[in-house]
């Protein structure tokens, strides 16, 4: 299967996209530069995963959806995810906005919560400072392709000293494999601000039967003393390829929390990185995944320490069924000069069938002496002693195994800050684990 995209075709698609939306000149130029780069760069090469065998060319074409007149018009898969009584909601269909609501109180404080395309037009100078600064468009073919063709997405800006108490929620869904589905999420939390953002990335069941690709990028900028919680659940159909890159840049005393659920039915590359730039900056990353069928997954979590006394903690837990395989990489890099830094990581994989495969690779790269770092990794089956103990209390073997698996994943599930999304995650786990 070919994974090549011609420069001409990519540029033509990028130009058509920019022209149809009346985008500002600086964004048109950025897309053109990225299209040229996409023709010269190679795809990323995740360890032990041959993504060149995947369908990476099914990026689709821009499609403008019609807005919904009410929430009741949205698909069931979307309505189930909406937090009850929410004031802050953005819903996109195939990367086009179909529903938007935002608290006037937050708007009056200078908070911005809108789709990224609107932000590029209405807040261009602000967006330009940050767009493709955490994830460079020339890193590889994936980032260049995304920069040329990104569509939809979300922009969040929280001014200095403003705390957003209620989570901001976005739902990004795909129901047409022929439509471009490449959102870009950009979050900027200014000095001593606080915000929680949660999104769900889903494909409507049975709607996208043809192959499609979801190249997505998340960029988060945590200014001095700011705190960002970012939750994201991905659940797309087996014909989709999800390639998601997430990066956060954290300044002095800033804190970043990642809560990621990679629960797709198709092949997945997921790379979540925190760059601890400032002194006493901190990062906490929790990732879970469940693989079924013949899925292939590459799940990487990274923390790069530059700041003195910076601290990172990474936890990845995966459950593999059938003949699914996952390569799980935890990478802690402590740069020279990051004295008193502390980096801890844990990767655990449960395999529920003889053909399932899980590789846990903890990696510590230390260029400074006065630091602490540690890792733990395990790959195995459900502990028979734990099963026996529960059975001795009158619980059936099947229920005992189920309880152990849910307990294994609970540290991440419990962290999801929006109840409707947490319930979705629990439903997905039940379906994937018991289906």
Would you kindly provide a brief summary of this structure?
By secondary structure, this protein is an alpha/beta fold. The protein is 23% helix and 37% strand. It has ten helices and 19 strands.
List the helices and strands and how they pair.
Blueprint lengths: L6 H15 L3 H14 L37 H4 L9 E5 L2 E6 L2 H5 L3 E3 L1 H7 L1 H7 L10 H9 L4 E5 L9 E7 L9 E6 L4 E10 L8 E11 L4 E9 L4 E11 L4 E8 L5 E9 L5 E10 L4 E10 L5 E10 L4 E10 L7 E10 L5 E10 L5 E9 L3 H8 L5 H17 L5 H16 L1
Parallel strand pairs: 1-5, 4-6, 5-7, 6-8, 7-9, 8-10, 9-11, 10-12, 11-13, 12-14, 13-15, 14-16, 15-17, 16-18, 17-19
Antiparallel strand pairs: 1-2, 3-4
How would you describe this structure to a colleague?
The structure is a single chain. The chain is α/β, with parallel strands linked by helices. Helices cover 23% and strands 37% of the residues. It has 10 helices and 19 strands. The protein has helices at residues 7-21, 25-38, 76-79, 104-108, 116-122, 124-130, 141-149, 384-391, 397-413, 419-434, and strands spanning 89-93, 96-101, 112-114, 154-158, 168-174, 184-189, 194-203, 212-222, 227-235, 240-250, 255-262, 268-276, 282-291, 296-305, 311-320, 325-334, 342-351, 357-366, 372-380. The strands form 2 sheets. A 10-stranded mixed beta sheet has the order 2-1-5-7-9-11-13-15-17-19, with helices on one face. The chain has a 9-stranded mixed beta sheet with strand order 3-4-6-8-10-12-14-16-18, covered by helices on one side. A hairpin with a 2-residue loop joins strand 1 (89-93) and strand 2 (96-101). The two termini are 30 Å apart. The mean pLDDT is 91.
């Amino acid at each position: 299967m070919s994974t090549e995209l011609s420069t001409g075709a990519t540029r033509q698609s990028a130009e058509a996209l920019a022209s149809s939306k009346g985008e500002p000149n600086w964004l048109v130029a950025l897309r053109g530069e990225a299209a040229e780069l996409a023709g010269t760069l190679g795809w990323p090469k995740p360890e032990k995963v041959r993504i060149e065998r995947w369908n990476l060319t099914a990026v689709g074409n821009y499609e403008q959806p019609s807005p919904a007149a009410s929430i009741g018009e949205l698909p069931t898969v979307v309505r189930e995810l909406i937090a009850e009584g929410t004031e802050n909601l953005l819903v996109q269909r195939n990367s086009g906005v179909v529903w938007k609501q935002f608290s006037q109180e937050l708007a009056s404080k200078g908070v911005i919560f809108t789709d990224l395309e609107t932000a590029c037009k209405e807040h261009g100078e602000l967006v330009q400072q940050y767009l493709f600064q955490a994830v460079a468009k020339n890193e590889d073919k994936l980032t260049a392709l995304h920069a040329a063709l990104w569509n939809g997405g979300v922009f969040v800006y929280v001014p200095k000293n403003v705390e957003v108490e209620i989570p901001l929620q976005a739902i990004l869904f795909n129901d047409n494999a022929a439509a471009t589905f490449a959102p870009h999420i950009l979050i900027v939390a200014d000095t001593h601000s606080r915000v929680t953002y949660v999104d769900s990335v889903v494909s409507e069941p049975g709607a996208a039967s043809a192959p499609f690709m979801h190249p997505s990028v998340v960029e988060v900028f945590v200014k001095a003393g700011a705190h960002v919680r970012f939750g994201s659940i991905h659940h797309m159909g087996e014909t989709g390829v999800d390639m998601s890159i997430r990066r956060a840049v954290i300044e002095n005393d800033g804190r970043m929390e990642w809560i990621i659920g990679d629960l797709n039915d198709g092949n997945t590359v997921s790379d979540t990185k925190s760059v601890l730039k400032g002194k006493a900056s901190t990062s906490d990353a929790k990732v879970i995944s469940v693989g079924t069928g013949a899925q292939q997954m590459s799940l990487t979590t990274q923390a790069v320490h530059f700041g003195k006394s910076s601290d990172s903690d990474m936890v990845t837990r995966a459950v593999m069924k059938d003949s699914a395989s996952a390569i799980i990489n935890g990478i802690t890099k402590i740069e020279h000069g990051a004295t008193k830094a502390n980096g801890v990581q844990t990767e655990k994989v449960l395999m529920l069938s003889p053909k399932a495969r899980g590789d846990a690779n903890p990696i510590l790269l230390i260029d400074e002496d006065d630091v602490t770092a540690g890792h733990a990794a395990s790959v195995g089956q459900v502990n028979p002693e734990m099963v026996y103990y529960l059975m001795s209390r009158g619980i059936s073997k099947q229920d005992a195994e189920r309880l152990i698996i849910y307990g294994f994943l609970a540290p991440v599930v419990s962290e999801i800050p929006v109840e409707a999304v947490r319930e979705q995650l629990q439903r997905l786990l039940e379906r994937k684990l018991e289906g």
